[in-house]
Amino acid sequence: MKEVFEKVTKIFLEDIILCDSCLGRLFGLRGYGLRNDERGYAIKTLLLMELYRVGEVVTNREIIKALASSGFKPAQDLALIVNVAFEEKECYICNGLTKKYSDLANQMVELTKEYEFKTFQIGCRIPPEIISREEDLWRLFSLHDAESIKNEITREVGKIFSTITGKEYDPRKPEMTIILDLEKNDMELIPAHLFVCGRYRKLARGLPQNPWLYEDSRIMYKTSIEELITEPLIVAANARDAKFHAAGREDIDALTLGNGRPFVVELRHPKKRTLDLQALEAEINDRAKGLVEVRDLHFCNSSMVSRLKKLAEIARKTYRVRVHFREPIDESKLEGLREQFKGVIVRQRTPIRVLHRRADKVRKKVVYDVKARKINEKIVEFVITCQGGLYVKEFIHGDQGRTKPSISEYLGSDIEKIELEIINIEEK
Ligand SMILES: [Zn+2]
User: Fold this and answer.
1) How far is the CA of 74 from the centre of ligand 1 (A)?
2) Greater pLDDT, 273 or 48
3) Which CATH architecture has domain 194-313?
4) Which fold has domain 97-191?
């Protein structure tokens, strides 16, 4: 303790006035289970006990003055008795900030009222002059056990906030992050995104996956899968907006049937986190009027988004494709087709139709199985099971030789029209 006394005495003799918290924090790593203001008050108390014994002449009048100026009541009483003049001053480091923890916590309570959350964390921006004054002291007086004011503020304000609201401080998985900007005297709320996942079936051709920004003759509706699914969720969660993630992109004029395509909706800045997903499922389906149908809505976390992206690449997909050929097809070739394409690796250069927005590269995808059923002379229905990420239309028409092998090349027939449906997406 001698070392602590010596250092504190030196600080006070420099006429550096410190509040209980800031003094205690300079030795913050010493002693367990104490708040910094308790630690600071204890140091001041012991210092006073060292300095003054009843009946003795007071020699250290400067220290008594400094202690009294810091607002330490026992020193103020003593100063009156021994005739030491003093003036109460704000703390050299924090300038009164440590007295405002309750106020800050109460402002947080007010500001977060409309938000639903169980766990929180606090971030803090501190005026740089406070930090440099504090760090100067650490250097000047060789204080190696000090704690930073930033730590103290987040912890102490967090404790008060938690006591008032019953919410739990959890920096690992906070549902709400509260930023105290003490530089600008401002607070910012960052509620964690809320993730809802499920599967959708696309039941209408001409419906884009995402809101479409430009004219396209294939578009039949003034809406998109994304809008139909996200809008009721945004309203229910009172969110600012949403990001829509699906396992793979949707062809405008293809259908997605079977068990549907997995998706995640990332609701940003939600005020509500408890949603009746069953009711929302019904509402989405009701409003979508048969264009889209969702199922199996449930909550998930952010890791699901990257899982979806991976899933899109590896999941086995099964398509039903109706192909109209220009000429009657060669029956014998059609019979050999299944054998020909079983387990074949297809090499695809980026399709011409997406070259304007994607880099030109070669990708290899596996086609597991192709079943063909002749509908008439020129129309064949194929059921194609392949690896996710295969450009199926190109696998059929060959994309001017950019996809090899292709069904068109094998059958030696040009193609007039392709109608595509996804009938199964298999998760692995
Ligand atoms: Zn202070």
Assistant:
1) 18
2) 273
3) 2-Layer Sandwich (3.30)
4) THUMP fold (3.30.2300)
